[in-house]
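Priority: low. Protein: Isopropylmalate dehydrogenase-like domain-containing protein. Input follows.
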Amino acid sequence: MAHRQLSWLLHRGRGLASTIRTSYGFDYALPLRRSITYMPRPGDGTQRTVTLIPGDGIGPLVTSAVVEVMKAMHAPLSFERFEVSGKMDKVPDEVMASIRRNKVCLKGGLATPVGGGVSSLNVQLRKELDLYASLVHCFNLPGLRSRHENVDIVVIRENTEGEYAGLEHEVIPGVVESLKVITKFSSERIAKYAFEYAYLNNRKIVTAVHKANIMKLADGLFLESCREIAKKYPGIKYNEIIVDNCCMQLVARPEQFDVMVTPNLYGTLVANTAAGIAGGTGVMPGGNVGAEHAIFEQGASAGNVGSQRLVEQKRANPIAILLSSSMLLRHLRFPSFADRLDQAVMAVIREGTYRTKDIGGTSTTQEIVDAVIAKLD
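Result:
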C-alpha cells in the first residue's frame, strides 16, 4: 500500500486554493481553506523516525536545512543519522537495517565514481529495498522565470533493471559486454504504478518513452507491457514516443507532456532534461518508492552532490530536498505539515528576495532556510 499512499498523498493539496492555482496545485496569493477531508486514523499523529543519510558534497548542508525546518514546524519526526559516502564498497548493514525498520529515508546525494570497480550506492539502495518506482516532479514554480510556461511533468521510471542492472564484463581484453535487462514483471508493475498515479491524481495522459525501433525485444517488451496496462485505464490517454524525439519535444513543447513512464536509463535523461526546462535540478523534488520502503531525495540527479565551492561558500540550493521532504510528510500521513512547508517554500520563491545562484540569486543555504521558516504559519 505504500505506493498507493504516496500517489494519493503527493498531490492531495490540489484544489484547496480559493481562486488561483499554480502548476504545483496551490494558491499562494490567497490563504488556503482548512480542509476536513483528511480524517486521521488513531495513531497517525505518533512521531515517526526517519533514517537520514546526509551523503556527499552539498548533501549534509541541504539535509541539515530540512532538519532545521522540520524542527521549526514542530513536525512529528525524529531523524536517525548515518554517515555514508559514495566511495564505500557497499551501504553499511546498520544503515540498511535502519531503513528497513523505519520504512522511510531522507537522503542527500551520494557521489558515484566514474569508471573503476566501485558500484553506485544509490543503485544498491534501490535494488536491495526494491524501490522500483522513481518519481520526479518537474514543474514551473510561481515567480521563477524559465524558457517555457505550463510545464507540469511527472517522470516515473523503472528503478531496478535496464542498463542500471550493472551487468558488465570484459569478454576479452579491450572488449566489454554490457547487458540491458528488461522483464515483463518489472515493466508491468512500473506501467501500473504510472497509470495508477495518473488516475489518483487526475492526470490525463501517460506517455511511454522507448527505443523499440532499435531495441525491438527489450524495449518492445516494455511497450507491450505498457499497452496491456493502458487497456485497464480507458479514461487516461496513452501515447508512445521514441526517446530521441522525446528529448527534442521536451525542449520544444514540454507542455504537451503529463505523466511519462520510462525504463531506467531513459528516465534519468528525461527527468534531468525536464528539470532543466522547468527551473533547474535544484528545485525539483522526487522520491523512490516500493511496496514497503521509500527514499526521498533531490528529484533530478544532475549535480546532486554539487561542487566543492558550493560546500565551502555554503550556497547550495535546499529547495529541491525541502519539497522532497514535503512528499515524505504526505507519505507518512502528515498532510497539514506538508501543506505548510509547500506554502512557505513557494512564497519564498515567488517573492524572489532570497535565491541561490543556480536560480538567479546570491543567497546562502542558511538565508533560504531562514526565509522559509519566517513564512511558516
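The chain is about 40% helix and 20% strand. Residues 1-30 have pLDDT under 50 and may be disordered.
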